Amino acid sequence: QVQLVESGGGLVQAGDSLRLSCAASTDTVCFSSMAWYRQAPGKERELVAVFTSGNSTYYSDSVKGRFTISRGNHKNSVTLQMNSLKPEDTAVYYCNAEVCEYIPFDYWGQGTQVTVSS
Question: Per-residue pLDDT tens for 102-115?
Answer without folding.
Answer: 888 999 999 999 99
